[in-house]
Amino acid sequence: MSNGETKLVKYFMAKAKLSRSKFPIGIGDDMAQMRLPRGDSVLITTDMLLDGTHFDTKKHSLEKIGYKSMAASLSDCAAMATIPLAAVVAVALPRNFGTQNLKKLHKGILKAAKKYNCPLVGGDMTSWNKPLAINVTMLSTVAKTKPVKRSTAKIGDLICVTGTLGGSLTRKHLNFEPRLKESLEIAKAGANSMMDLSDGLSTDLNHICRLSKKGAIVEANKIPISKTAKGVNGALNDGEDFELLFTIPAKNFEKLKKLWRFKTKITAVGKITKEKNVKIEMPNGNIADLIPGGYDHLA
Amino acid sequence: MSNGETKLVKYFMAKAKLSRSKFPIGIGDDMAQMRLPRGDSVLITTDMLLDGTHFDTKKHSLEKIGYKSMAASLSDCAAMATIPLAAVVAVALPRNFGTQNLKKLHKGILKAAKKYNCPLVGGDMTSWNKPLAINVTMLSTVAKTKPVKRSTAKIGDLICVTGTLGGSLTRKHLNFEPRLKESLEIAKAGANSMMDLSDGLSTDLNHICRLSKKGAIVEANKIPISKTAKGVNGALNDGEDFELLFTIPAKNFEKLKKLWRFKTKITAVGKITKEKNVKIEMPNGNIADLIPGGYDHLA
Questions:
Q1: Under an 8 A CB cutoff, do B98 and A298 touch?
Q2: One domain for residues B43 and B162
Q3: Model-level pTM?
């Protein structure tokens, strides 16, 4: 999200005037939360995926595209440390897309739905003389711990990530594993803030800091760089990692590491600071501003 | 929805294998229903609206387009006789769409959100070198009466509609009033089945009959034809009326008419039959098959 987008989201937040008792989490987080009259609560996320931007029908199979569409929203459920409940999918089909192609797309959607226990309960189908667009909306329910927000990082928290970062577009962006189980453990260990990495660490850490009214210092040397990333820059700025970015007090992180039973590793890459600047210490010891390098949808 | 689409929906329903206790209403109705652990229940609908199909950015103001996008989903909430809870909106913006245009669209969305007490709680924003696409997903909660489904029409029910039918595209499709209040009264009076008219009476009545495993006989003379419709054919086949189509025992309809306090009129246009054919009695007394005349998104 660019500066322009960030300003817009602030504008949307201000206009929404949501009741905090009914909507404890509103616009600006990975999901919004609603409280229901009898004491249940659901969270919701919606994502538009476009041919040529989020997938490429010329290169990728429709089954993989279907899987990815669901996995991206499942990653939002993970980002809040919540449990997927159900999904609805709306598609804008290019004319002459045909039933067989639609069934392939559906197969990939169902694959993710079954794997992560998030049934497809409805949808919409329309057509036009333009490329494929897929919109997934997903609901989740609260786990034993409260949903973990973006805006609640605390001074002194370690900044941590799951997995390795960067190069996703040449590698795993079509068949990644949303970190659902991992996120529940992270929440249980006492993480203060969390989101999923969709726009790159440089951009997404800036979100956490801005919303939490804190700063950060990242150590470049500590960033777990993916083999397919082009160095630190790729790890910082490539999108669609779908790993978790979370902040957690150091003693909770030690506890978490001892109990960690997943293949995916967790790494501390920096610390939340009082000063509201987001900085990076380069391998040579120089300290620079960590500037958002993600994609700007308003440019 | 065409025959091809109807078959596909059946295919999706069969593949979904939803638990009926958790999901009392699944794929194939205006909304899906989910039961939550503490006894609450929410319904969900998602709709994709496309430039050139559902609206025209060359002709219509972005504010009206925003309003319509929300109103179409609000009409789904009405179709089930439920109460709107919250909405999320995802947009695919043409490049260079710009902040001012986005704010105009947002203004229309908020206008509907406020008018019908259905706050906008989240969204997604992405861009491409293609026309505007808007996806609205809406949640609703159960009213005092149970949600009214499409599949529960009973033999002998009167087939009724709100308002007048046809010609919507030259008239009100951008600023119609979803029949939320009316639908609650209709449910309270004891309607057996209901949906909103989005594809035209000929198509939508066939849905109710197919899903209810019943037939119908419509009297052409009784159809309330809109002034802008091209005769009975327009009233039967034009899309986007966003009026309610419901079936109700005759004595309940009499009761409903006595208590009716809305401007929008209600009209009985036919009767549900045991024989599984959907028929129409023409003004000259001839009886013909009432064939779906709506739009086919797979053709």
A1: yes
A2: no
A3: 0.94
